[in-house]
Amino acid sequence: MPYKLLSVQTGVARKAQIQGRSILTAIYKTPVTSPVPVMPLGLAGDEQADLSVHGGLDKAVYAYPSEHYPFWQDAREQAGVAGVDDQLPFGSMGENLTLAGLLEHDVWVGDVLRFAHCALRVVQPREPCYKFNAAMGFNTAVKAMALSGRCGFYLAVDAPGSIAAGESFTLEPGPRQMGIPELFKAKLFKHLR
Questions:
Q1: Collapsing DSSP states into helix, strand and coil, what is residue 126?
Q2: Which of 25, 27, 109, 143 has the smallest number of Cβ neighbours within 10 A?
Q3: CB atoms within 10 A of CB 173
């Protein structure tokens, strides 16, 4: 079944005021309209501020389902952060790729997203940090992601090339031993112990 890549985003590391401190972050992503080179460590023009928890070969690209955006818009409205006309643009979750039709429960570690000019392998779910609270504008966003399982997933670059918004892609099943929702729950449980 073909899926759709709605938007591609990159960001540079910059200082932002988070919890009263000046913190280096690259969570703020902006759309790229032309094809973007995909290299082993991620998309050209994309940076990570803290390489101990983001980036690297196993976290080269972050993908997020577009279907979750209404949930976050509602959560922001309930927290008093956003008005009805204040829509979240794609990239607001810090994702590089905003996908349509592919949710966490459809994805397993080792599955491959095959695009026209590159291939990206599913590696692990995103584990949100305090910077996500700042990006969403309310202090319980990390908890909301943990409870809802709307985490998205990191991808490794199996075949470098290029990628562009509007492309279709297919999902090639991997070994199907560990699903993203199960791995996300296991990682969260480990942190809670």
A1: coil
A2: 143
A3: 10
What is the model's pTM? 0.94
Give the Cα-Cα-Cα angle 73, 84, 75 (nearest 5 degrees).
25
* Burial class of residue 57 (count of CB atoms within 10 Å of its CB; 0-12, 13-18, 19+): exposed
Three-state DSSP state, 6 = strand
Please state, in angstroms and rounded to a whole number, the distance separating the CA atoms of residues 152 and 63: 6
Say whether pLDDT at 52 is over 80. Answer: no
Confidence (pLDDT) at 193: 47
- Take residue 74 and report the two structure tokens written for it: 């509602």
Whole-Å CA distances, 43 to 8, 92, 139, 141, 164: 9, 17, 29, 26, 11
Cβ-count burial of 79 within 10 angstroms (0-12 exposed, 13-18 middle, 19+ buried)? middle
How much is the pLDDT for 110? 98
pLDDT in tens, 93-130: 999 999 999 999 999 999 999 999 999 999 999 988 88
Terminal CA-to-CA distance of the chain, rounded, Å? 39
**3-state secondary structure (DSSP) of residue 78:** helix
Q: What does the alpha-carbon distance between residue 122 and residue 107 come to, in Å, rounded to a whole number?
A: 8
Encode pLDDT of 54-64 as tens digits. Answer: 789 999 999 99
